[in-house]
Amino acid sequence: MVGFVFLILLFAVLSLVIFQMIRKNSEEYSRIVLGQRQSGYGSRSIQARRGDILDRNGTILATSEKVYNLIMDPRAITSRTDDRYLKASLDALKEYFKEDERVAVAESVLNEQKNLTGNKKSAYFKFKEGMSFEEKEAFQKFIDEKNAAYRKSGNKYEIKGLWFEDKYQRSYPYKDLACNIIGFSSADNEGGTGGVEQYYNNSLIGVNGREYGYLDSDTKLQSVIREATDGNSIVTTINFNIQRTVEKYLQEWQKDDVGSKMAAAIVMNPKNGEILAMASTNRFDLNHPRDLDKTLYPDSLLLEMGKKEALAKYKREHNNQELSEDKLSTVYSNDEIMSLGSQVAWNQMWRNVAISDTYEPGSTVKPFTLAGALEENAIQQNTMFTCEGYITLSDGVKTWTIRCHKRDGHGTIDAEQAIMQSCNVYMMDTAFQEGAENFVKYQHVFGFGEKTGIDLPGEADTSALVYKADNLGKTSLATNSFGQNFNVSMIQMAAAFSSVVNGGSYFRPHVVKQILNANGTVIQEMEPELLRVTCSKATSDFLKEALYQTVEKGTGRPAQIQGYHVGGKTGTAQKLPRSEKNYLVSFCGFAPVEDPQLLVYVIVDTPNLDGEEQASASFATKIEQKIMNDALQFLNIPPQGETDPEASLNKDLQEGIKAKEETGETTSETKKENSEAKEESSLDSDEKQDNEDSVPGALPESSAVNSASAEKENTDNEDEQRN
């Protein structure tokens, strides 16, 4: 009997244990199942906050602000057959939002949902997006007061099924400032387009969390929360004040001065590769990146761009089969064509021309020609060449005449004078002494034909836009020596020039200084990255002095700044096709010469003037001078001397005019040059280069600035190159 009772008790205990195990497993299973359902059990994603983007001093350039979406639950609102929730909720929306068109849409949705049953009813309708905290609180207070009034009066009505979900919305406080550096994020904040937003997206996004809802054994709603991990913040190398200054002067040039097809500038620290500012006249509001300025992109232009893109699209998708424009409407609708046009316009507007576009550099390349030759001992600093205004080359069949900008020649000059006076003939003779193999070697040493590796997306690949040594004939070697017939990007030129003036150290250009975690702690410091040595300190010191003299007494005089020793080089390149007489002018300057801390590079593409009138590097030099002057003050760089730009410029001109008057050589052009001294730099207005024969080996004809993917062709071209 005792044994029987023991067995019964043992069975009861085992049954209880098994029941508890089943119950526990059932609860765990229920938690998993309910947690996977996106339903009314409270299971939802918790959005991680995208990290901020700041300038080097902590000014916020991009941030994520919490906003609220007002959600309507039609299933809950229409759950009563007496419509007590429906009437109260709809009346509340009408009273609060009044004539808002969303109210009519909501009413239509609710009436439609009312006639559905069970799971056919929707539990989610987004009534209004992007409400601020203040707007959300005001509406919540309104609802609470309405429901309290219903209860107090004994009214059966109740506002139900209206609730808020929160999310983060990307905001750019300064709108279009540094737009090409910053880029913009997608609507869900999980992707970036262009700039830092794209390149550093994985650091910025963070990891979303989740709240899992489940019913416990007592059918009570419970939740488990996995918190989100917010994204890291990016501290850029950008100086807010310098960036704003650069954009101001570019816009002043474009709107209040001569203006041009495009202008752009880079400001960097030549000692470490930090980009302090980068901008162009292509600007857009980062908060509304797809809004097209109709003054720049009228519908007629979008249609034309769309047609061109549609024809190209058809060719790509049909094995290079051509489609005539008159048949275009049979394949694409007008809306499709306009959409393609908008895509092209967006790509133009968003493109960072400072790293993505390429062009022939012109005479800003001359310091590199000398640097390579000096390093190889092909010439010495005191090597003399005679410039008669041109050289003549022949391949035994055809003869080419390649001219200097000074038609009557510079006479016998040394290397420093060649830089100061921007002599093409001296550069050609230097390149011949150096030879094609060494010339090409130093092009790559200085980074031409190579990507700089800047931490921004979209850098141009220029490997096909420079010559290989075995393809560099004597005529192409000649024109390459003064910056024609090969292409560079702005960032390549700025990085290379920095190495020339900093003692020979080539640093990788970069736009990010630090990465911070969500608590503001530095988790990664971007140290300057020395990639290679380009030239000796002796060569660097010599070129710094030559470039200083270029600004003091040579072609770069408009770049002078009172109290500071500034060096630099002008450049004026005639664009393809040569016959159209369009020019890209530039100036690359640095200061102080004794210890360069700032480098400013400006290009002006196709000034709004006719033909030869475009060909004055002073357009770029004047912009550079303004930027440099302000940047020196922002960085508290003390002056070194008392240089008076106007006195120096006028003294040199007056002495030159006096000498010509004494020999009876003064011309009306000389007098004009005096009166327009501040407007001219490297070119006299009568310097026209009509070379007798074309020079082979030109880069292909293209639009204003060559695309990075262009290929070299053996296309004859009229050789014309200015200082």
Describe the SSE topology.
Blueprint: H1 2-36, E1 44-46, E2 53-54, E3 60-72, H2 74-77, H3 84-97, H4 101-114, E4 125-131, H5 133-153, E5 162-171, H6 179-182, E6 184-185, E7 192-193, H7 195-199, H8 201-204, E8 209-215, E9 221-226, E10 233-236, H9 240-256, E11 260-268, E12 275-280, H10 299-317, H11 334-350, H12 353-356, E13 358-359, H13 366-375, E14 385-387, E15 390-394, E16 399-403, E17 411-413, H14 415-421, H15 424-434, H16 436-445, H17 474-481, E18 488-489, H18 490-501, E19 505-507, E20 512-516, E21 522-525, E22 530-533, H19 537-553, E23 567-574, E24 583-591, E25 598-607, H20 618-634, H21 645-662, H22 668-675, E26 694-698, E27 715-718, E28 721-722
Parallel strand pairs: 2-10
Antiparallel strand pairs: 1-8, 2-3, 3-4, 3-5, 6-7, 8-9, 10-20, 11-12, 11-25, 13-18, 14-17, 15-16, 19-22, 20-21, 23-24, 23-28, 24-25, 26-27
Q: CATH superfamily membership of the largest domain, which one?
A: DD-peptidase/beta-lactamase superfamily
Note the quaternary state here.
single chain
Strand content: 15-25%
Distance between the termini: 118 Å
Kindly report the average pLDDT value: 85
Q: Which segments are poorly predicted (pLDDT under 50) over 5 or more consecutive residues?
A: 24-40, 645-722
Overall 3D geometry? elongated
